[in-house]
Design a protein that fits this description.
heterotrimer, A mainly alpha (about 120), B mainly alpha (about 500), C mainly alpha (about 900), A: about 120 residues, mainly alpha, C: about 900 residues, two-stranded antiparallel sheet, about 70% helix, about 0% strand
Chain lengths: ~120, ~500, ~900
């Protein structure tokens, strides 16, 4: 399964980057979403996946009786999801404000601050 | 217990949260701004003294012993960086009191500033690679918000590039952390370093090193990954620019220093060679970028890039003297670059523009400001006897002693071109008579005496810093030397973190 | 001595203050310092002449091998005396020259600082200290050339001078470092004794090149001579002091100082002689093309500097004594002539010699001084210049074979110089009286004192050069010709050098006679002149700017996708290189997949791909939603319930947000060309492929044991939680979570500010907009909202409290609660929500953050590391309270606050747009 996921995640990265390279700012922000999702999945997958063994300690016991899924990457991904949520909400609103100010969905019209 | 390790993070966090609660009281926010940054400075100095006296300090957060919990680690480099964070924080806070508009203050300028400082301090003090990511994000989102505060068109355009490229960097970092955890199963940097040494597959270690290099290279604005910086740094209010200029890229540089001395130091012939060329090109392209600019803050922005090159060069040469030079350079640069941005802000306030064309006559009317600029600018260009000279001198000497003649020649040339840029600003903004047509200049508001004092005080303070470092470089030299020795002996760091089970007592 | 120099800098800084107190007398007062130093130096004269040297130790930065140790021997005594004596003279002079000028105090600051730097330069024993002073002279020179700073020519000249000298200075720095490396010391005194080691060292050639570059640029040697005439934009006292008597001789000083250490090799002899000779001729030849008195003198200075270099190149004891005498003579006469030029310019208001005439009647004393100085310049008896020139001819005649040929350029330079002397000294004072912008008269004593002193020295020493025997011997000993027999005399009898002098007198006279015609002829060479080294400098500067502009267009071109492509390509290049060349492809593909898992993965990919190709915005958003949903499913399938819930909630919120925001944006349009799309596709595929490869090789590679095994084992026993993920979040790695909620809070502040605060244009007030329900508020919605809110709140509290043991926790609970609030908001509007909430969402954020931070504090009382968990059992309800729980409540409040802040801001903004 990990191999299949690795390929899928590769595709997610590819789509994310393709979207980010478009001229539309909306596509850019969708690309960013895909990208952060892909990264989260990558952490989750690379640490190894396990079916049907959530990292919970049964009631009344001190430790799980059998092997459970690695809880640490789950915690990391949870943190990463939340952070990505914050950042992406910001980005989404930024895109919208940028559109209101520049009045164009075209990134090529947003290059006045350089050069 | 040594609370001073955590305090430089907690104080700005606390100040930020408190400012949020006091959202409606401008007075309270201003008081907290000064109090919080002063507290940060004091505790960080305390920390530095402790580290200097007793060696690397560790706190196992939550009492969970390393590597299971998160460790806060303060070695000399980290402590020095935190002190600088405090210095810049206080300077910018004072400057902001006078220069930041009411609107900005009403919409969270001060909480954002505190949290940015917290993120920066956290990044300097954490000993955990994922926690480093979290602090990066704190710093980053704070900088996003500061960057757009005001919602003007250039800010929006700059912010889109800034946000996108920095997010790419964060994702790369995250991917690298994920892969690293998959390989070594730990997140504590000291533990990673220890475990990587036992790994047989060194090729994959190099691959990861490259990923970290690119991720941090973007944060540090190294060539050719710096695009976000010149696109955005000149757009927000100048106090924000100054804060960014002083601290943000340096966090990237710090991260490079940390991972390439602690974790990825096994094949310097490969990794550090690449860093070396990256450093050379960074210096060169940054200074060339500046040569094409005719706006005060844009010139300064490109010079950040070019000087990041010097710092990375120090790391890349990987000799004790070179690392020492890198650390020295970082200290010097943070102080001077922030100061130059602040000065550009005062000039703008007095003259109503950042464009060199529209400026002039500052030398005539405000000689004290001219002197302050000259001190900082010449220091930036590495002229003696200011801090920049010794910083450059050490790096150059290290380069020649390491027989890296090519990059050293570039470093020297870049020094000259930096001087060219600085004299360009001096000639145009300070010496030239003010232009007659004031067509597209915002007529400057009358600047009150109190305002001028508030803006002037931090500038004077920072200028004195560079002067004192220049006249009496030995103290900083000794500190940088000790920190370089620590960096080149990662086993000391590892032992400090992992060797005291049960928490930092 | 160090104290005197450092004190001098302080005195310089105090000049404006002094000027406020003493006004016009300030320069006179400040001249006391160099005069005092000169007196002290004179007192050391006997000791030095007797062959002694004074070494004054002074530590500066021992760690860096830098000391401020001063060394007073013959060579430095000679230079220091020149600097302090002429310095005092110039200070007095400029008080008069710039009388009443508003920038006089600033001038005094800089020139005094220069004086001290120059003294430091010639006295320093340490290479770095010398370099520090060296650069300081460049900077002060820059400030002085640009003294008339509103004049753009002055600014340009100042920058040119600075860049040329500092450029050389940087080479010099590199040279010094190599020198110290090769000679294993930073002390000049020590290095000088290791000449043999240095000349054998492999670094000898590069270090020589670097040091010579430094010296040649500073001392205006060909082809760097061009900055010096331009530097005449400075006030005349500055030209007299910096650009003829002292600073430009710094390079010469350095060459002399290092003579014993570096000379003797072919490279040294050849370069110095050749460059010196070229500089001589160039200077002399260019001089007679000009009519500006200062330019004339500047080129003649170039010529003199060339001569000094040439003499050092020859390096025989004879040449070296010629060097000493010529140096002194030049300082005396050139200083005088410049000061006279200043007087002329001050009194007449013009600098053009052809515009002056007959002045000897109105200013006889000036005329007399000028003529005496010119005699010395021309190398005519009975002045010191004559002695110097004769010695030069002698040493050339005695030089080795090929160097004899350098007599030709020396002779040419000599007769051209003679005509220059004539032009400067005769032209303004004789002939018909010409009208000048100002009516000239004899200047005040303060301006005449300097020329008077210098000329008398020139005359006295010319008549009795024996007085210099001792000093010359001492200097010679320092520069590598110790024990040389020095007997200076004015008259050596009739010999070949005298013949040469006579011949040059005749030729020089002819040039003077036909000067006006000659200039016309030389003007025809102008096209050639524009191709000189200065044109090279200009081209270099223009090229630099062009290159910079090109690079900016190429790299910093404003197109974000170019930035992205570049960034990704760099990543691919570096990571790919490391992967294929240092790791190699070694991948095991283990495939054990259930069909439903494959379907989920397939759907996920399909969602992502279709988001790319969808033309409708909402469809694209929906496709992203599908992908997010599949990710949540993956989490469910692979044992991550907390993640699944979080992903689901976050995805829902994100999609709602996207829909809310993008609703107003225009439709997608196809903006890029097929080729661009192909390029993007290639970059994207490469990146994706790289990621897959990396993952596969990590998955199939060596894997070390996890630290999480410890967490699984200790979650319950030590942290009292059954949900290990939650325990990690609120206890083991609570610091991450603390950072995380701060990120959210920051994002909310940012969003709020973006939507509500516009620095320019319509500033939306904090309470703008009406608070009524949204248009979409239907009856069903409002009933549902009213009913759901308490239920949802209750449910969220339940999720929060059980979080430590089962899936749930602060974040998830908060999202559930905010769902209820959001519904309420949509149904009843913001004001109603505010009534329910009673606090502003923003305060909720602040309180939540504070609570989260407060939970770290109990540990402080017990002296444990912060964030250490504390547990209390509340007796009555048998509920276990703990700091992690308080922390989680903080998270809960903060997240609710964040979501509500963002949503209210968005809703308000929409209403603004509608209204």
């Amino acid at each position: 399964m990990e191999s299949l996921m690795a390929v899928s995640i590769g595709v997610l990265f590819a789509t994310a980057i393709y979207m980010m390279l478009r001229r539309s700012i909306v596509k850019l922000v969708i690309g960013l979403m895909l990208l952060s999702n892909a990264a989260n999945l990558l952490i989750f997958t690379t640490a190894g996946m396990r079916r049907g063994a959530p990292p919970l300690v049964p009631e009344g016991l001190g430790a799980p009786t059998s092997a459970v899924a690695d809880p640490l990457p789950q915690a990391l991904v949870l943190t990463a999801i939340v952070i990505a949520f914050g950042v992406l909400s910001f980005a989404v609103v930024l895109v919208r404000r940028a559109w209101e100010v520049v009045r164009a969905d075209d990134l090529d019209q947003m290059k006045d601050t350089d050069t | 217990m040594t609370p001073q390790i955590a305090l430089p993070i907690l104080i700005p966090l606390f100040a930020g949260a408190l400012s949020l609660v006091c959202w409606r009281s401008r007075t309270m926010q201003r008081l907290i701004a000064v109090g919080g940054t002063a507290g940060l400075l004091i505790t960080s100095c305390w920390l530095l003294m402790t580290v200097n006296r007793e060696g690397i300090q560790v706190m196992q957060v939550g009492g969970w012993s390393a590597p299971f919990g998160i460790s806060l680690v303060a070695d000399l480099l980290g402590a020095i960086m935190v002190v600088l964070t405090g210095v810049i924080g206080l300077a910018v806070a004072l400057f902001s009191l006078a220069s930041i508009g009411r609107g900005h203050q009403d919409y969270g300028y001060f909480p954002l500033m505190h949290l940015l400082l917290a993120g920066v301090a956290g990044a300097f003090l954490t000993g955990d690679i994922f926690n480093l990511y979290v602090w990066f994000e704190v710093m980053l989102v704070a900088s996003f918000a500061l960057l757009i505060l005001g919602s003007e068109k250039p800010q929006m355009e700059g912010a889109i590039k800034y946000v996108t490229l920095n997010l790419v960097s964060s994702v790369l970092f995250l991917v690298a952390v994920g892969l690293l955890y998959g390989m070594v199963g730990t997140l504590n940097m000291a533990d990673i370093a220890r475990r990587l040494a036992s790994l047989e597959d060194t090729g994959m270690v190099d691959v990861l090193a490259m990923m970290f290099m690119v991720a941090f290279g973007i944060k540090a604005a190294a060539f050719p990954l710096f695009f976000w910086l010149p696109a955005s740094y000149h757009t927000p209010p100048v106090a924000v620019s100054a804060l960014f200029a002083g601290l943000l890229t340096k966090v990237g540089v710090y991260a490079l220093f940390r991972v390439f001395t602690l974790i990825f130091h096994h094949s310097p012939g490969y990794t550090h060679e690449i860093l070396q060329w990256g450093a050379a090109l960074t210096m060169l392209s940054g200074v060339l970028g500046a040569a094409a600019q005719f706006e005060f803050r844009r010139i300064l922005s490109f010079h950040i890039v070019s000087q990041i090159g010097y710092m990375i060069l120090g790391l890349a040469l990987f000799t004790p003297l070179a690392i020492l030079g890198g650390v020295f350079y970082i200290v010097h640069h943070i102080i001077v670059k922030t100061n130059l941005f602040l000065i550009s802000g005062i000039v703008q306030r007095l003259r109503g523009s950042y464009r060199l064309e529209a400026l002039g006559g500052v030398y005539r009317d405000h000689p004290w400001l001219a002197v302050l600029f000259l001190v900082s600018a010449l220091s930036l260009a590495g002229m003696p006897p200011l801090s920049g000279f010794f910083a450059k001198f050490i790096v150059i000497r290290a380069g020649l002693e390491a027989e890296a003649y090519g990059v050293t020649a570039i470093a020297l040339l870049v020094g000259l071109l930096t001087l060219y840029s600085m004299t360009k600003i001096w000639n145009e903004a300070f010496w030239k008579a003010p232009p007659d047509d004031e067509a597209d200049r915002v007529p400057p508001r009358q600047v009150g005496q109190r305002e001028l004092w508030l803006m002037g005080a931090p500038v004077v303070g920072l200028a004195i810093c560079t002067l004192v470092i220049g006249l009496q470089p030995d103290a900083l030299y000794a500190l940088a030397e000790a920190s370089a020795a620590q960096l080149l002996a990662p086993e000391r760091y590892i032992e400090a973190v992992l060797g005291t089970p049960g928490g930092g007592v | 001595m160090q104290l005197a120099v450092l004190g001098g800098f302080v005195l310089a800084g105090m000049a404006p203050l002094l000027h406020r107190w003493f006004a016009a007398r300030t320069p006179l007062l400040m001249a006391a310092l160099p005069a005092g130093i000169a007196a002290w130096l004179l007192a050391q004269w006997p000791m030095v002449v007797a062959g002694g040297a004074l070494r004054l130790e002074w530590a500066w930065a021992p760690g860096l091998d830098i000391s401020l140790t001063f060394l007073l021997d013959g060579l430095s005594l000679m230079f220091a005396l020149l600097i302090s004596v002429i310095g005092a003279v110039v200070l007095v002079y400029s008080g008069e020259y710039l009388r009443g000028h508003r920038d006089l105090p600033r001038f005094l600051v800089v020139i005094t600082a220069f004086m001290m730097s120059m003294l430091g330069l010639v006295l320093s024993d340490n290479l770095v200290a010398l370099f520090v002073f060296w650069e300081l002279t460049s900077i002060t020179s820059y400030l002085l050339i640009g003294f008339n700073h509103t004049d753009s020519a002055a600014r340009k000249a100042a920058q040119q001078g600075l860049l040329v000298t500092v450029g050389g200075g940087l080479a010099l720095l590199a040279g010094f470092v190599m020198l110290a490396q090769a000679g294993d010391s930073w002390s000049l005194q020590a290095l000088v004794e290791r000449g043999d080691v240095l000349r054998q060292h492999e670094l000898y050639t590069p270090l020589l090149i670097c040091i010579l570059l430094g010296a040649f640029t500073k001392s205006a040697q060909f082809p760097f001579h061009f900055w010096l005439p331009n530097a005449m934009a400075a006030p005349t006292p500055v030209s007299a002091y910096l650009h003829s008597a002292t600073m430009v001789k710094a390079g010469i000083y350095l060459l002399a100082r290092l003579h014993p250490a570096l000379s003797g090799s072919e490279a040294w002899v050849f370069t110095l002689s050749l460059v010196g000779a070229l500089t001589m001729v160039t200077g002399a030849f260019l001089a007679i093309r000009h009519t500006g008195i200062k330019t004339l003198l500047a080129y003649s200075t170039v010529m003199a500097l060339g001569t000094l270099t040439l003499l050092l190149g020859i390096g025989t004891p004879g040449a070296l004594s010629a060097f000493v005498i010529f140096l002194l003579a030049h300082a005396f006469y050139k200083g005088t002539l410049f000061l006279v030029a200043g007087i002329l310019d001050h009194e007449t208001g013009t600098k053009d010699v052809t515009a002056m005439g007959g002045l000897r009647r109105v200013m006889p004393l000036t005329a007399a001084l000028a003529m005496l100085a010119a005699l010395s310049l021309a190398g005519l008896p009975p002045l010191l210049g004559f002695v110097g020139k004769e010695l030069m001819f002698v040493s050339l005649l005695e030089a080795s074979s090929w160097q004899k040929s350098l007599l030709v350029p020396a002779f040419v330079a000599a007769f051209l110089t003679l005509s220059v002397a004539a032009i400067v000294a005769l032209r303004p004072f004789f002939g018909a009286r010409q009208e000048t912008p100002r009516t000239p008269r004899e200047p005040p004593l303060a301006m005449l004192a300097g020329p008077l002193l210098l000329t008398s020295l020139s005359l006295l020493l010319g008549l009795a050069p024996g007085g210099l025997d001792g000093l010359t011997r001492a200097v010679l000993a320092d520069i590598g010709a110790s024990g040389a027999d020095v007997k200076l005399a004015l008259w050596h009898g009739i010999n070949l050098p005298l013949g040469l002098s006579l011949a040059s007198l005749v030729l020089g006279g002819l040039v003077y006679r036909y000067w006006d015609g000659l200039r016309g002829m030389l003007r025809r060479l102008d096209p050639l002149m524009t191709r000189g080294p200065e044109a090279g400098y200009d081209a270099l500067m223009a090229g630099l700017v062009a290159l910079a502009a090109w690079q900016t267009r190429f790299l910093q071109n404003g197109y974000i996708r170019n930035y992205l492509v570049m960034t990704l390509l760099v990543m691919l290049g570096l990571v790919g290189h490391a992967f294929f060349f240092r790791h190699g492809l070694a991948i095991e593909l283990g495939v054990s997949v259930y069909i439903h898992e494959a379907v989920v993965a397939g759907l996920m990919v399909a969602g992502a791909v279709s988001a790319c190709v969808m033309r409708a915005r909402l469809a694209a958003v929906a496709a992203v939603g599908v992908m997010g949903f599949c990710i949540a499913l993956t989490f469910v399938l692979f044992s991550a319930p907390d993640l699944a819930i979080t992903q689901l909630l976050v995805e829902t919120l994100t999609v709602v947000l996207l829909a809310l925001v993008l609703f107003r944006l225009p439709r997608f349009a196809t903006l890029s060309t097929p080729i661009e799309r192909l390029r993007d596709l290639v970059v994207a595929t490469l990146t994706g492929g790289m990621i897959t490869l990396l993952m596969l090789s990590v998955l199939s590679g060596e894997r070390l044991p996890r630290i999480s095994d410890w967490m699984v084992a200790n979650s319950q026993p030590q942290a009292h939680g059954h949900n290990i993920v939650n325990v990690i979040l609120v206890d083991f790695r609570a610091l991450d979570t603390l950072g995380e909620i701060f990120v959210l809070a920051l994002a909310a502040v940012g969003v709020h500010a973006m939507l509500r605060f516009h620095a320019r244009g319509n500033p939306a007030g904090d309470d703008g907009g009406s608070g009524g329900p949204m248009k979409s508020g239907t009856l069903i919605l409002s009933v549902a909202a009213r009913l759901l809110l308490p239920l949802q709140l209750l449910f969220s509290v339940f999720l929060l409290l059980r979080g430590h043991d089962e899936p749930g926790g602060g974040f998830i609970a908060a999202l559930a609660a905010s769902g209820g609030f959001a519904l309420y908001l949509f149904a009843f509007g913001r004001d109603a929500l505010r009534q329910v909430l009673r606090v502003s969402p923003r305060d909720l954020v602040g309180v939540g953050l504070l609570l989260g931070m407060l939970s770290t504090l109990p540990a402080w009382w017990s002296g444990e590391p912060f964030f250490t968990a504390h547990w209390w059992t509340i007796p009555v309800i048998d509920f276990k309270a703990s700091t992690p729980l308080i922390f989680d409540i903080g998270v809960y409040l903060a997240v609710v606050g964040v979501v509500l802040t963002a949503i209210t801001a968005l809703v308000d903004n929409d209403r603004h747009d509608e209204g």
